[in-house]
Design brief:
341 residues, binds uridine-5'-diphosphate, Rossmann fold, 7-stranded parallel β-sheet, alpha/beta, binds nicotinamide-adenine-dinucleotide, 42% helix, two-stranded parallel ribbon, single chain
């Protein structure tokens, strides 16, 4: 297949591009480099021995996006990662998020729909908020979004569903990711947060590497077995595979409706302290940490029921938490070398 990957130089996009190329597909990457760099393209090339065609383009630049589609009239599918993703920043600058995440999606849909190109959309488990039942299945209702970022995912899903209803030949899959972590086994690509990491794993690895004084664990007085919050941490290469399976599923006409949503997680919940212990055991590195106050807005627990995607596509997470954490650590060490160069 020939696949356009928007945001293909970002964290999840780069890992997915590698997997697609390794599986013999042709990848075209569109990214404005706002949260990535050309070094990632080098990483993809060094892993796969192929340099994918790359357009440094902003998705909201309709003219430029139309030109790309006019130039490539044989695109078999689009995987849409390009968006802003920082929850806290979205609270401070909501318009920035609504503009990019919604207008970028609309610009893309305007090209896809007339050409009947299938879409895989990066959604998030944030659409569920604090679900009433664990594990969370896809019938769990959307709760009011806790941030403008989360709301852009809910709106994005609704826009795509409406388009699928209005255009019988347009097909889409909404993938609701749980917590993506880890890096490619070669450590040529990985997660590179801008400034101080907001997410647990990059903060943890930076604390172990000595870039941060210590990991601050946000609260140990939650109603969970050890008092810390529970999440479903999924290896980014497992997540990448879910995108390829989704495209194949649509191409083989296995979909039961024009627009379907699927959870992508491991199905297992792990607490923050379990993550710390698993990291220490699997890397033999001590994690400096202290318990601090709860972080406002954190939900207590979220882990996926993954039966729907397993049954429909035969996809199941393959990597363990320990393997994902080892790969994150390997990337932390390797990226320090890259920075030093
Ligand atoms: P990322 O920031 O690493 O990657 C996004 C990429 O898109 C970046 O390379 C950025 O430069 C590019 N981009 C942003 N706006 C663009 C625009 N207007 N035009 C062109 N390129 C643009 O993020 P990620 O972690 O790889 O996330 C990918 C997608 O998955 C996002 O939609 C995100 O909301 C979603 N998601 C991420 C997580 C997570 O924890 N990482 C969880 C759930 C959902
Ligand atoms: N967390 C933490 N310290 C940090 C970052 C995160 O204790 O520096 C906790 C956070 O409270 C949550 C879990 O780790 O319980 C996962 O947080 P992350 O921001 O990675 O993902 P999300 O909250 O979006 O699920």
């Amino acid at each position: 297949m020939k696949i356009l990957v928007t945001g293909g130089l970002g964290y999840i996009g780069a890992h997915t591009s590698v997997l697609l190329i390794e599986q013999g597909h042709q990848v075209i990457i569109l990214d404005n480099l706002e949260n990535s760099s050309l070094r990632v393209l080098d990483g993809i090339a060094s892993i796969t021995n192929q340099r994918p065609l790359f357009y440094q383009t902003d998705l909201r630049d309709r003219k430029a996006v139309v030109e790309i589609f006019n130039k490539h009239t044989d695109i078999d599918g689009v995987i849409h990662f390009a968006a802003y993703k920082a929850v806290g920043e979205s609270v401070e600058q909501p318009l920035k998020y609504y503009d990019n995440n919604i207008n970028g999606l609309i610009a893309l849909l305007e090209c896809l729909i007339p050409q009947e190109i299938p879409l895989i959309f990066s959604s998030s488990c944030t659409v569920y908020g604090q679900a009433d039942r664990m594990p969370i299945d896809e019938t769990s209702p959307m709760k009011k979004a806790a941030s403008p970022y989360g709301y852009t995912k809910q709106i994005g899903e609704n826009i795509i569903q409406d388009c699928a209803l209005a255009n019988s030949s347009f097909k889409a899959i909404l993938l609701r990711y749980f917590n993506p972590i880890g890096a490619h086994a070669t450590a040529q690509i990985g997660e590179t947060p801008n400034g101080e990491p907001q997410n647990l794993i990059p903060y943890l690895t930076q604390a172990v590497a000595g870039k941060r004084t210590e990991l601050r664990i946000f609260g140990d007085d939650y109603d969970t077995p050890d008092g810390t919050c529970i999440r479903d941490y999924i290896h980014v290469m497992d997540l990448a595979a879910a995108h390829l399976e989704s495209l194949l599923y649509l191409h083989e006409g296995k979909n039961s409706s024009a627009c379907e949503c699927f959870n992508v997680g491991t199905g297992k919940g792990n607490s923050v302290l379990e993550v710390v212990k698993t990291f220490e055991k699997s890397t033999q590195k001590k994690v400096p940490y202290s318990i601090v106050a709860r972080r406002p807005g954190d939900i207590v627990q979220a882990y996926a029921d993954t039966h729907k995607i397993e049954k429909a596509m035969g996809w199941k997470a393959q990597y363990s938490l320990a393997e994902a954490l080892q790969s994150a650590w390997k990337w932390e060490v390797h990226s320090a070398h890259l920075e030093a160069q």
